[in-house]
Amino acid sequence: MAVPMLKRITYLIPPVIGLIVAVMVYIGYRADQDHHAQKVRARVVQSLNEGKASLDSAIGSGVHLISAIEAFLKVNPGLNQSQFAVLADALLVNMPAVRSLQLAKDDTVSHAYPSWSADKIFGRELNQLGTPTLRTLLKRAKATGRRQILPPGEDALGNEEIVILAPVFLPGKTLPGGYWGMISVHLDAAALFRTANIGLSGDILLALRDKQPRDGRDAMLAGDPVVFEMAPLLRTVHVPSDDWLLAAAPRGGWAGSPYAKYILVFGLLAMVLIPASLWAVAVIVMGRLKDRERYYQLVHSAKSIIMRINMDGDIVFCNEYAEDFYGYEPGELLGKPLVGTLVPRKTLEGRSMRRYLARLLMNPTAHPFNETMNVRKNGEIVWVAWANDSVRAKDGSSVGLLCVGTDITDRKLMEEALRQREKQYRLLAENVTDIIWGLDADYRFTFVSPSDEAVRGFRRSDVLGRYIQEFLTPASKTRFKDILRVLDDLADAQGSTASVTEDLEFTCADGGSVWLESHLGILFSEEDERIGLQGVSRDITDRKLAEALREDVERMARHDLKTPLGAVIGLPEEIRRHGSLNAAQEAMLGTIENAGASMLELINRSLDLYKMECGTYVLDRSTVDVLSVLEKIKAEALPHISEKGISVGIEVMGGAENGTLPVSADPELFHSMLANLILNALEASPETGSVSIVLDRRDGLTVIIRNQGEVPLSVRETFFDKYSTSSPARGSGLGTYSARLIARTHGGDIAVETGTPGETSVVVTLPQ
User: Fold this and answer.
1) Which of 71, 238, 283, 567 has the most CB atoms around its CB within 10 Å?
2) How far apart (Å, rounded) are the C-alpha atoms in residues 506 and 504?
3) pLDDT at position 13, please?
4) Which whole number is the average pLDDT over 347-363?
5) 346 in the Ramachandran plot: left (φ > 0), alpha (ψ -120 to 50) or beta?
6) How many distinct helices (H) and strands (E) make up the chain?
7) Positions of E strands within 313-409
8) Rounded to an integer, what distance in angstroms lies between the CA atom of residue 337 and that of residue 310?
């Protein structure tokens, strides 16, 4: 019986060993399938998380950028293009995904970055720059007050951009009156999707689509639609007012392990060759251990803070980078509560972080990303931006929180510095007594300090965006045009330091006016382009009233002098009628008459100048021969011409008709204007010099009086001002002033040109 029993045992040993080997083969087969699935799933999860993190980071950067600009606009709604360029340069550091920025005040593009794109879109309405979908999102953003996102492929630029729209409402105002305009951030969709590996070839395929497509548009945003048919892993990407669905699946689908058939073959052989089966199992086990080691190295070598928090708020895992970042030894953070160790118990605003973490653990999808103040082991304060996702058990219940963080301390410091600079600028601008104002390239107000309301009565909202000419009196409008020409000339010579000071009369809210002494300078962009004007004004109304009072006194004095002059002029004739006058007495009476007539003419001319200044002078027009007037002036100035040996030449462009050159003008004023200018040219010319007079009748009448010698630098800017003269001994300073006044009374103007070295040209233009 022992032998059969031994045989049975012997016979039973192969089946038992075969059964054991079969069980081992089956166990190995299942283990390999699970291992392969986990490995593939881990790679898919990694690619999916990396892609989602890239999308969240890029879109989050755009949202943070909008929040920063929106906060800046709420305190400085009069932001001009230069300030916007500086702000954009500061905010776009380390934001390569942002292609461009646009601000549309009242839905009209008013700011753009970069500056080279401004010329194409400035002044255009935002809804004219895109498709009907963009216009729909614009209406939705204004109606709801919420940010909207335009996926790629829905804009006029094709699928190259992702556009985030954000309405801006000024604080303290109700809708729709508080609506300022729209912020538009353009992200480079192609670069963003490449960074997230969406649509690229590889072992893992990623695709992105709209979670709930609307308005009949295509749901797919990037990648191959077939990914969504391969039972992919999904992640929801939260974007402004929308959700996108990111899917990832291995190329070729979720296929089984490529080692399965080998395991079966080895299993069959192992029924005969046990060592071979053991070797196969060892290979599988070693392969699994190697994959786990790779996964461990990947997590711990990542340059991001990776933590896992359990439902009690304790740290149960952190990578090596997190330990180095916070200054802790390996394993020192494990088991410690997040709040109180790395995160302060309360925020700077006094909010409890323990309560916030509890809400986050209960519903991570409500807070997919956030920014918190953290504390290192040495007490140093740092800021970290977190991307949060829940960790779930097999039954789907939440067992913790997975957090991936990025250091944003430098950005926070930059934002704080920006707020401090803004606070200092506002403190200076809002407390100065002088009026500080700025104009854009079209001379519309982009900024005005609060002191303007105290001086003129206008609120800032009544002034910003309007042209400066709307607040100038008619005379000051003309003077402002002259100032612009002077600034242009100075800018060509002096560059950005060019500035002028001029008295301008501004209107007030109550219908009156004030005189402001204004110092104006040109604003230049970083590319040395002229983008506007900057002005500082001071109220000089009292001084102007005093000057006007003096003018009134002088005018009344001139008027009162005319009465006694009547006697001075008339009495000599009465004396002659009595007769018995000798030659000496007759000569004295003639002298009295001539002196009285000259004085009366001076008084009348002074009164005429006053009427022209006030705009009340009535021209007595008739046909005047310009050539005859010039010959008469030459005859009157002949002693002066002969004394200095000056040659005077007259040239008529296009020739004269019948030896005459007629023009419609007031004869006396026309003669006085040319006489003053020619006499000035003769006095300024050196001895044996020359004076040329060029007449051009082809477009109105142009008279160019050119002489040798240059206008002194001290009087170039005030050449046509009242009482302006380089030497009081050479005149009263009224010649050029009265000449220009006469030209403007005729509807023309006078300008001086000093561009040619050693020469001065005075150009008179009169209409037809």
Assistant:
1) 238
2) 6
3) 61
4) 85
5) beta
6) 20, 26
7) 315-318, 369-375, 381-392, 398-407
8) 10
